[in-house]
Amino acid sequence: QVQLVESGGGLMQPGGSLRLSCTTSRIIFVFNVMAWYRQVPGKERELVASITNKGNTNYADSVKDRFTISRGNAENTMYLQMNNLRPEDTAVYYCNSIGSKFRWGQGTQVTVSS
Questions:
Q1: CA-CA distance, 36 to 48, in Å (whole number)?
Q2: Distance between CA atoms of 99 and 83, rounded to whole angstroms?
Q3: pLDDT exceeds cutoff 90 at 43
Q4: Is the Cβ–Cβ distance between 37 and 99 less than 8 Å?
């Protein structure tokens, strides 16, 4: 069973930057379009960014030009570079494939506040 582990969250002031990491227990990126999602309590999980095995990326309008999704040199690692953070980016961030094929991890909390 694939395990997804997210890390790198924290408390950041508006305008700051964070880099989130996603590590999987198995090599799945080659075979799946991978994505970052986020969820705020009481709201549905939202797709933030996705990346194909060829490196093609897509972003939600709310994060376009601020966030960058990428895959690491290791075949089981993925990143989300978040710049110019805003309070509305506050959420728990998760990684998974498009279509959420795998069991959700614990996520990593990102809080943007002054």
A1: 5
A2: 26
A3: yes
A4: no
The pair of three-digit structure tokens given for residue 68, joined into one six-digit string: 């960058």
109 vs 54: CA distance, rounded Å: 29
Closest CA to 50 of 62, 38, 36: 36
How would DSSP label each residue in the chain?
Answer: ---EEEE--EEE-TT--EEEEEEESS--GGGS-EEEEEE-TTS--EEEEEE-TT--EEE-TTTTTTEEEEE-SSTTEEEEEE-S--GGG-EEEEEEETT--S-----EEEEE--
- Which residue type, as a one-letter code, is found at position 43? K
Q: What is the pLDDT of residue 28?
A: 83
Residue 49 has pLDDT above 90, yes or no: yes
Judge whether residue 106 has pLDDT over 80.
yes
- Please give the mean pLDDT across all residues of the chain: 94
Segment 75-94, tens digit of pLDDT: 789 999 999 999 999 999 99
